[in-house]
């Protein structure tokens, strides 16, 4: 597709369950980012991929959060043992290679933890 | 700590009005400043500003960066109801060459008919 694609668009799960969120970046974009947007707050950086490597994971809030990227394309963000404070919109963005490029965002996954 | 601050946090205007949204930043390794428009879902890219004093324009929207004042403004002239959205300002953090964005809280703009 032409833009960044994320799935699912909405996810409701019970506290303690694991969830996987998927991101398909724009074709040819080697840089991929995950951000979190909690209600009433600005977007927070989580993790950055260059190709399949993640040189910056500094924004991951705890070791329950992990992410991987394969084929320099699809990325998956996994949250284990979800907590209520994990409820947020998780946004993925991609850009061309280089640290001074505009990022283009997907529609996000709205995650609700019951 | 690096931060980006937007003002006002919310704004209500009538169609045809002109609005100015503000963004100020304190980012140690500044690369560029970006503006996004967020309606229901994905933030959509509006402008990227790297050099001070050069205005970028797209239709009724324009933006300029002032690196001396560590700030940027986004102007929207002749507003329309379709301009109602959250406008996000973000700075590219140059540390570590990751290109990660530091976002402000956003300005919620409501344009009334």
Describe the 3D structure.
Chain A has 114 residues and is mostly beta strands. Chain A has strands at 5-7, 10-13, 19-24, 31-37, 43-50, 53-56, 65-69, 75-79, 88-95, 104-105, 109-113. In chain A, strands 2, 4, 5, 6, 9, 10 and 11 form a seven-stranded mixed beta sheet that branches. Chain A is globular and about 40 Å long. The model of chain A has no long low-confidence stretch (mean pLDDT 94). Chain B is built from no helices and eleven strands. In chain B, a hairpin with a 7-residue loop joins strand 9 (85-93) and strand 10 (101-103). The mean pLDDT of chain B is 95.
Helix and strand sequence of chain A: EEEEEEEEEEE
Oligomeric description of these chains: heterodimer
Percentage of residues in strands of chain B: over 45%
Largest interface: A-B, 29 and 27 residues
What is the overall pLDDT average of chain A? 94
> End-to-end span of chain A in angstroms?
33 Å
In total, how many beta strands of chain B?
A: 11
Low-confidence regions of chain B: none
Secondary-structure class of chain B = mainly beta
Find the count of extended strands of chain A (DSSP E, 2+ residues).
Answer: 11
Largest sheet of chain A: 7 strands, mixed
In whole angstroms, the N-to-C terminal distance of chain B is: 41 Å
Q: Helical amount among residues of chain B, as a percent range?
A: under 10%
- Compute the gyration radius of chain A: what is it? 13 Å
| Number of alpha- plus pi-helical segments of chain A | 0
How much helix is in the residues of chain A?
Answer: under 10%
């Amino acid at each position: 597709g032409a833009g960044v694609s994320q799935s699912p668009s909405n996810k409701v799960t019970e506290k303690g369950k694991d969830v996987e969120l998927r991101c398909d970046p724009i074709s040819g974009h080697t840089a991929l980012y995950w951000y979190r947007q909690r209600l009433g707050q600005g977007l927070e950086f989580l993790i950055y991929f260059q190709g399949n490597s993640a040189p910056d994971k500094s924004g991951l809030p705890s070791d329950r959060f992990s992410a991987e990227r394969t084929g320099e394309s699809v990325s998956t963000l996994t949250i284990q043992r979800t907590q209520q404070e994990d409820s947020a919109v998780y946004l993925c963005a991609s850009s061309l290679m280089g640290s001074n490029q505009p990022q283009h965002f997907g529609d996000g996954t709205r995650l609700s933890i019951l | 700590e690096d931060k980006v601050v937007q003002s006002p946090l919310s704004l209500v205007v009538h169609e045809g009005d002109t609005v100015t949204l503000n963004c100020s930043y304190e980012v140690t390794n500044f690369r560029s400043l970006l503006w996004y428009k967020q309606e229901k879902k994905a933030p959509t890219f509006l402008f990227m500003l790297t050099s001070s004093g050069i205005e970028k324009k797209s239709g009724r929207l324009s933006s300029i960066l002032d690196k001396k004042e560590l700030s940027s403004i986004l102007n929207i002239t002749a507003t329309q109801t379709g301009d109602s959205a959250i406008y996000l300002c973000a700075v590219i953090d140059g540390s570590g060459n990751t290109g990660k964005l530091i976002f402000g809280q956003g300005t919620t703009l409501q344009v009334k008919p």
